[in-house]
Amino acid sequence: MAFTFTDKYLKSFVSDEKLKAIEPEIMRSVATLENRNGAGNDFLGWVDLPVDYDKEEFDRIKDAAQRIRKSCDVFIVIGIGGSYLGARAAIEFVKGNYYNSLPKKTPDIYFVGNDISSSHLSEMISLCDGRDVCVNVISKSGTTTEPAVAFRVFRDLLIKKYGDKASEHIFATTDKARGALRAQADSLGYESFVIPDDVGGRYSVLTAVGLLPIAVAGIDIDEMMAGAAKARAELAAGDVMTNPCYKYAAIRNILYREGKSVEILVSNDPALTLTCEWWKQLFGESEGKDGKGLYPSSAIYSTDLHSMGQFIQQGERVMFETVIDVNINDGFTIPYDEGNSDGLNFLAGKEMNFVNQKAFMGTVMAHTDGNVPNCVIDLTSRSAGDFGYLVYFFEKAVAVSGYTLGINPFDQPGVEAYKKNMFALLDKPGYSEQKKELEARINAIG
To answer: How far apart are CA 177 and CA 182, in angstroms?
Structure first.
């Protein structure tokens, strides 16, 4: 395991005295989580999930993944939010951004049903032309608009391609007993896996929601669960001075109260781009309510230093950074150029990772000098176990942080607002009065 959290670059912003002052609040939040007596306590299945999961289904996931790897060229994952972000984050974290383009013995994996773009869906259909296809549709209800529309399209494709055998190419991850997708899976014979009732979507990557696509990519899900189990054990004791999860939750709340309303999750490895996207949903949906919460943003360095770097260095001082420093020595070196036309021969023979680490250090120092606090997570590998550990660290941290903020970290009432308006404007039955009101407002705007 290769995870280390440090606040050593943060001491001029968050002193030990400040940490000690907020410690009683943090530990009350920890007790609320452990005693399961806080708001949203019926969605705490993720807490013990790394050790208390359905072993029989876990074996079925591995068996299905092996069959999928043998039977198809393209694996289409249909889902939105937590139903796709965690799996895609894990695949890119372990396998890299170019998983689909690299030589491999596993299928290409594409994610659809996370937008309403006709061009995106058309392109995905084109990628399936002349290739064997399997589909994993992920939805607790089966009626969420974006994935339901995509599933209609791909189900039609599979029926045309495979006829009566189409159902053998469909894998459903859904509610155990209820919902439109459950009914369809039972009636048409899709192999199915369960979304636990007590695990919310954004916490579901270590359930069948994430594990089936991750396993199809050839990633060791036993190792991933072991990493999460290690985090569960190591992050279960101590206080804000000794437990990095509690310290991170404390730091976030201290900085928030001092006017730092934006947190940027940064990595110096583009393989973590989707990990940042997963984190944004986890933290944004968990804490952004009741007029409260840090705004979660993300960046990949050094790429974004050439776009957002100016604002981060000298813009409005409302932000801090949590940096995931990936420090992996892979032996890739910079070549010597006889002409030295770019003036970079002083780097010749040095490892790219050495240069990346110096860029990381230079950025941390520049940003802290610019009044942007930095806390750092060091990773020395990108294994399945590391991903499992990181997932659990962030899940527990946002739960503790959310309770300290005084909100329910496990609901998302605001997500329904756009859906109701969309349904009304699309003339869904039962929304006629809301449609009239919305159209009148839109017409008044002009």
So the answer is: 6
